[in-house]
Design goal:
- With 418 residues, this protein is an alpha/beta fold.
- The chain has a domain of 134 residues: Peroxisomal Thiolase, Chain A, domain 1 (3-Layer(aba) Sandwich), CATH 3.40.47.
- The chain has 13 helices and 11 strands.
- The protein has a 9-stranded mixed beta sheet with strand order 3-2-4-7-1-8-11-10-9. A two-stranded antiparallel ribbon has the order 5-6.
- A hairpin with a 2-residue loop joins strand 5 and strand 6.
- Helix 1 crosses helix 2 and helix 6 packs across helix 10.
Length: 418
């Protein structure tokens, strides 16, 4: 739909559509890459540069989400022959991707560099697993972990479970409703040649899988993978001369917190997440609202995280998240499809970057599904969403990505087709 023009040069709204994602790249989503994160990160950034139609020498800024066995940006840059005018490696969590895009916009606007590569590289299954059970051990217990591990909260599922349980208690949300998040994402993944898990699941499959941490069943939880992902951000004036239709950035909210982060549950409601606060930044800055969005990428570390975010960003009323995700609205062919690649539940775990990559491709109208290639080298999308078919959202013009680190921290971004 038509979006409002921007005239106010004194607020963040002036940044609408002035910057764009012009290139995306990724390595295969595997369990046992056999590669270092340096090699994977270099491959992903190179792929994103080529996707944009740029040369390595066109990149002069680099940002990364640094954690686990990842590699620092200057090493990736050096391997590609890139001299950087700006770089930063941020330790963040799953809400880092959208926040890093906001930082990229800021440093370009400040004249510190012109084009920024952002990457995340992780052997998240074969080397450093989030729960600390991989080939390489997790960092020692310190910081917030000194408190949380004393209560048995070592994994993300254990730490988030009170939020999920409270939502069930307060609003009558059922496991059957939320299991539909996995069902829908598995349907989307079945049409994604690069997804790790392509099997379509049922609600019975989810509820019949073993408990990990109540109310989370195994199939409520994301996959663990080895992979690297990358995106390229530059000014919209430059983007229009590059290879693809640009994904213009309308607005970003970066790493917004609840009033307390360490023990967010002491500042209620427990079932409210950071998106409740981030929405008041995101929607005014983007100049749109939930009703304007064609496709979402709501972080799915667990089925519940997707539901909670869609609710607190205003896609439905508070307490109606269970009804929303079980209604079919988030399916391909529904009013507002979510995580059309299969997301973290099925495609691969990247701390949110693959969901941004997916929405960039959606806005290009060039999703990499199994549809046949046309004589012009572009896919001839059928919009037949049966297993093994299409996953392009017809006429996608505006997208929203909803990042998640934990119930108390979140980031988000709105993009539109250029």
């Amino acid at each position: 739909m038509p979006l409002p023009a921007d005239t106010d040069a004194t607020t963040p709204r002036y940044l609408r559509d002035k910057y764009a994602i012009v290139g995306v790249g990724e390595t295969p989503y595997t369990r046992g890459s056999g590669l270092t994160t340096r090699a994977m990160g270099t491959n992903a950034v190179r792929s994103a540069i080529l996707d944009a139609g740029l040369k390595p020498s066109d990149i002069d800024g680099m940002l990364s989400y640094q954690s686990g066995d990842s590699t620092f940006a200057p090493f990736i840059a050096g391997d590609l022959g890139i001299r950087l005018n700006f770089y930063m490696d941020v330790f963040g969590g799953g809400s880092s991707t959208e926040a890093l895009i906001g930082i990229a916009i800021g440093v370009i606007a400040a004249g510190m560099c012109k084009t920024v590569a952002i990457f995340r590289s992780m052997n998240g299954f074969s080397q450093v697993r989030i729960g600390g059970t991989g080939a390489r051990s997790a960092p020692p217990v310190n910081g917030d972990m000194l408190h949380s591990r004393a209560y048995g909260w070592q994994s993300a599922g254990q730490m988030f479970a009170p939020t999920f349980l409270r939502h069930m208690h307060d609003y009558g949300t059922t496991p059957e409703q939320v299991a539909m998040v996995k069902v829908v994402h598995s349907e989307h993944a079945s049409n994604n040649p690069k997804a790790l898990y392509k099997k379509r699941n049922t609600v019975a499959d989810v509820l019949g899988s073993r408990f990990i941490c109540k109310p989370l069943h195994l199939l409520d939880c994301c996959v663990e993978t080895d992979n690297a992902t990358a995106i390229i951000v530059t000014g919209a004036d430059r983007a229009r001369d590059l290879r693809h239709t640009p994904a213009l950035i309308r607005g970003v909210a970066g790493r917004v917190n609840k009033p307390r982060l360490d023990m967010h549950y002491q500042h209620g409601p427990i079932s409210t997440v950071a998106g409740h606060y981030a929405k008041d930044i995101l929607w005014p800055n983007a100049g749109v609202g939930p009703e304007d969005i064609d496709v979402t990428g709501a972080y799915d570390a667990f089925t519940f995280t997707t539901m909670l975010q869609l609710e607190d960003y205003g896609f439905c009323k508070k307490g109606e998240g269970g009804d929303y995700v079980s209604s079919g609205i988030t399916r391909l062919g529904g009013k507002r499809p979510n995580n059309t690649s299969g997301g973290h539940l099925c495609e691969g775990y990247t701390h949110g970057m693959n969901m941004v990559i997916e929405n960039v491709r959606q806005l290009r109208h060039d999703i990499d599904d199994s549809c046949p290639m046309g004589p012009d080298g572009k896919r001839m999308h059928t919009y037949d969403y049966r297993e093994g078919g299409c996953r392009q959202v017809k006429g996608a013009e505006v997208s929203a990505n909803l990042g998640w680190a934990m119930p108390g921290t979140g980031s988000a971004m709105v993009m539109r087709r250029g």
